[in-house]
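Anyone else keep sequences and structure tokens together like this?

Example one:
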Amino acid sequence: MSTAQRPTTAMVLAAGLGTRMRPLTDTLPKPLVPLAGRAMIDHVLDRLAAAGITTAVVNVHYLADAIEQHLKARKAPRIVISDERGVLLETGGGVLRALPLLGNAPFVIHNSDSVWIERGVSNLDRLLDAWDETRMDSLMLLAPTAASLGYDGRGDFNLNSAGVISRRAASETAPYVFAGVSIIHPKLFAGESEGPFSLNRVWDRAISAGRLYGITLEGLWMHVGTPDALDEANAAMAAAQGQSA
């Protein structure tokens, strides 16, 4: 895949309430909660910039002023705010609202709390290199459920030998969990009406068409959803930094 075909725009989802992270989020939006001494959203934006993303659209709702003020110090990528102060639109509704800012080309969607410890090659570079809009409507980064920190669920997806994703049945356990990062073509939002809805709705359309693909994350994905999980993630990052020093 040539560099010219790689997406260069990202949507960073930062409008959630962070209720499971309380009491830390009583006065601080979750994207600004420190991890390894830096706001979680800065880990995300640094990775995006390093992978060649030049513009990041960031949606804001809860404690929006604090996020906007924090992001003013960013040099790269260029930050554009999608204002959701009036209504919480969920993941899909937030992306739909931001489409005029994102343009007509495929773009990255990145949760503001999706963090991991790399192992070798950049996972974002691998995702961007794997994108092929002739075969895909969306491409997900998937983490192995058995090798993820802070996650104890039953997984989200199965992945066949061609990289095509299917959902697990209700009674099953799946080997992969969504790592909070994907590439998507804006055409998947055609016909959607503005309002709150989940990205699962558009992903299910891609699954039905056989056009939802995935690659597996190399490294340690960390599900930083609670204060206890944050402590575990801080310890894991400190250990990793110690090994690389």
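And example two:
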Amino acid sequence: MATVGCVGLGTMGGPMAGHLLAAGHTVAVWNRTAAKADELVERGARRASSPADAAAGADVVVVCVSDTPDLEQVVLGEHGVAEGIADGAIILDCSTVAPSSEVRIAEALADRGVHVVDAPLSGGAEGARNGVCTAFVGGSDVAFAVAKPILEAFCKTITHLGPTGAGQAAKAVNQIIISGTYASVGEGLAYAEQAGLPLEALVEALAGGAADSWILRNRSPKYIAHEYPAGFRTVLHRKDLGIAIAEGEAAGLRLALTRTVAAWQDALIAAGYGEEDSSALGRIGRGEVVPGE
């Protein structure tokens, strides 16, 4: 068993820390909103006073925060992970951020032998709660070998894809693909509703054919109910698409479909639906929100 620091206890990070405790690891926890650590402390975690304190004595520091500036602050900022982490330890970043940020952090800590493994996750809140996330992993072979048993506490699928930054690039691919799926499922079910089809039966039929997807099977109840309680918030998906679009531009790609979905999400956010699940794109499909108006 390892000594693990957990920095960031939100929708994903909190359940991840819980799975690490359940697996028998020694866990220290820190979150900007301290109350989010209460349940984990009751279960045996140590409450850390800062990211540096969470990193003190840790073999691996798991970070899960919302955006690139947050990552750079909790790792390299005042009282950040870099101040407390031991030489030779591992930072396992499960945030979804720009690949270039992971590389910058790795370069900043390389002279201390601190390894950065980027392992952004797919699976949403449900995957984190159930411990069945998918991890896209970047980092050296040596660092991955250390990080893998930690990831196994909350991941079902773990794939090492290359050096530091490769995990974030792979997550960008994931976000590009699911953005189109969220939009097309919303449009398809909007049409089905207008056509008078029995939606639950239709979804079951679609799930048996080429239109099947995780989003169809797991998000169709939200589309059908016209209610989109947060699972993976639209504002966070839009942030991820911004990363993908910037990376695409750097590679000479326009990513036209991704830009279209991003514009639709901008419209949802402007209309006050940014905190809803990404399946709120169904509001576009049904014409509740019209991009550009």
